[in-house]
Amino acid sequence: MTRIAAVHGALATHRHAQSEITDMVARTCLPEGADRSVLDRLHRGAKVRTRHTTLPLEQYEALDGFGAANDVFIAAATDMGAKAVWEALRLAGLSAADVDLLVFTSVTGIAAPSIDARLAGRLGLRPDVRRLPMFGLGCAGGAAGLSRMHDYLLGRPDQVAVLLSVELCSLTFQRGDASLANLVATGLFGDGAAAVVACGGRRTGEAVGPTIVDTRSRLYPDSGGIMGWKIRSSGFQVVLDPAIPDVVRRHLAADVEGFLGDHGLKPKDVSAWVCHPGGPRVLEAVGEALDLPDGALDVTWRHLAEVGNLSSSSVLHVLRDTLATRRPPTGTPGVLLAMGPGFACELVLLRW
Q1: Catalytic (active site) residue 139
Q2: Are strands 272-275 and 333-340 parallel, antiparallel or unpaired?
Q3: Of 139, 199, 275, 345, which is the active-site residue?
Q4: Helix segments in 36-195, DSSP class H
């Protein structure tokens, strides 16, 4: 089985109270003189206290178009990604020369050469390193990246893989867009990165984290339009349908129960739930669908309050925080889960 040797989470430089970001959004997204009561209610309802942004808030008002925002993404994602991978390798007791596969996921910017290619020389990766850039998975990208690393390492148990997620969500906020979806997104999403080092089952000597036992991907029918991007000249315009929590309630329990059942397990056997912080209504739907006990998602709720939703990076931050603050008993099962555009769910079965 694949072993997770290290998890490192990083945050963008500039930290703000939620109210400061709400004021910035009011200036840049609402018509002059408009009533901001709906914006204030949505941002309070996100249950986010603070968030991190790539740029100082005053610079977002001057950010001119998709090209300018994407240029910032490329530069900042490369810098943040390099630091995240370096630190994760240090924690794992490995060097860049040990890396056989680099998986990169993001949904908040595009680049060719991709960010992983731009990092190869900067990090000192071998010229024969395999690369797998992934775009479009959204919030599910962190869990999906773990799954693809696991697939690779099953066939190459002597090797090392690194997953890097960088999400600079603030660069996608749409100026002049007073739609409910944009107002919700500007109250929920933040900027951050995460890197995970994983080793095949025959590697020995690195730091010992949980093992990945199995993974599962699910696409839900007739739900492709409820989450994602509309690509505009101004960049990525968010699609967030109010029906998302209902889709979670309708499908998640059967998927999780079937996944665990294949391993002779039931939800009550799971010692820790590592859940992506999709937002308050989604988290409530997850808890209801799985009939989770009080406190089962406390680490996720705390992450949401402290930094917001970091898209694909968030579930990896929650994994790091679970290991650091609520490490489950050795040998017990855990479930890591995240949902994203498709509409899709990614499940990872862990053994602590």
Answers
A1: yes
A2: parallel
A3: 139
A4: 37-45, 57-60, 65-92, 115-123, 141-155, 180-188
